Amino acid sequence: MQPVKIGLLGFGTVGGGTVRVLARNAQEIARRAGRELRITTVFTRDPSKPRLYSVEGMRLVTDPWQVVEDPEVEVVAELIGGISPAKELILRAIELGKPVVTANKALIALHGNEIFARASQRGVMVAFEAAVAGGIPIIKVLREGLAGNRIEWVAGIINGTCNFILSAMREQGREFAEVLKEAQALGYAEADPSLDVEGIDAAHKLTILAAIAFGIPLKFASVYTEGITRITPEDIRYAEELGYRIKSLGIARRSGEGIELRVHPCLIPARRLLANVEGVMNAVVVKGDAVGPTLYYGPGAGAEPTASAVGADLVDVVRAMTADPENRVPHLAFQPDALSDLRVLPMGEVETAYYLHLRVADQPGVLADIARFLADHDISIEAVIQKEPKPSQQDVPLIFLTHKVRESALDAAAKKIESLPTVKAPVHRIRLETLE
Q: Per-residue pLDDT for 272 more than 80?
């Protein structure tokens, strides 16, 4: 059979990795797909840039529309990122009946509902494994491997930059700002790191995971997002004393009242496998009603790990090119007419346990006052750490772990606690997840 001709939009880190992986593993990939995969047309901003791999047989163009409109290109791989022109290019490829592979998590999270609807109308496949957790095949796991389960929750370390920063802070006792600069120097964080450290990147990925896990439309605007910028070495040290580690997690959980969608720092028990994922690695735990908890671990970014996912999608697309569109795996796992628009819970209705870090005056009765306000809101205390003041200190740290409580109750209690003249700073809280 004739090779499948692929058009590549983007020749950066992931695009270059995809070229290398497809060339190195060409024979294996062809045996799996049933046909040879050949990259023929590539959009790049700099065709003259030296490459460490062969581009023989590829037409390099500086206009991305030339890739999509090329009549010989049968499959389009979008690896340029961003919203525009990526969205317009993908929609045009769909209009032309060309399957699309993309690594663009922001585009899928924000506009995936529209893209998938267009693709379904045209009978075209859109594959996006590389959009979440790099080389970890978590989309395929949720969409196919666990299709016999009712997914109860998904929790994951899905941003390598945040995990690198928190790991270095824990191992070396360094401040957030100092480690962030190192992450930028190493290329793990962008010059503007807000997408990573404020949790937005992870929220894009969680949006996709939740849609596939629960059969709901993509709901990025409903994800609660909180970054790691307020985490201190002291928080990490106190968490360790209590038997926990701090990780930034994306959590999607089904409850009787709706769906929780949230990204924020968490205390998790140090004995959990997820707590021991360090550096830039990613890991996702999925809890199914039949299988129980299952863990998926690996690199969440990088040229070849992401290219691994792009390559797998290309194989799937080629396999499906001769299949009846009605019998393909649905984009979001559930049949398009069977998606359920379940309610996403506001954070005030979410129940978790909490780590509370207070700065208080070193005088009698302070602990009793705070405990009374917590009790007034039915907040039960699991553990307390009270440190002796240093000679130069006018106030002391006071640490509480609570049992599970509705967030609205904690909000009300925190407001009362902060009104005390003996409390010297706003209550610093971190949610606690046992992942049981």
A: yes
Q: Of 205, 287, 387, 424, which residue is the catalytic one?
A: 205
3-state SS class at 37: strand
Cis before 85 (ω within 30): yes
DSSP states along 333-364: SS-GGG---PPBPPGGG-EEEEEEEEEEESST
Nearest to 224 by CA among 173, 262, 258, 253: 262
Q: Is 205 a catalytic residue?
A: yes
Fold of the domain spanning 4-134+303-338: Rossmann fold (3.40.50)
Contact 270, 240 (CB under 8 A): yes
**Cβ neighbours for 280, distance < 8 A, ≥ 6 positions apart:** 160, 161, 163, 164, 188, 299, 300, 301
* In the chain, % of residues over pLDDT 70: 99
**pLDDT tens sequence across 369-392:** 999 999 999 999 999 998 777 777
| Crossing angle (nearest 10°) for helices 160-172 and 233-241 | 70
CATH number of this structure's domain 351-432: 3.30.70.260
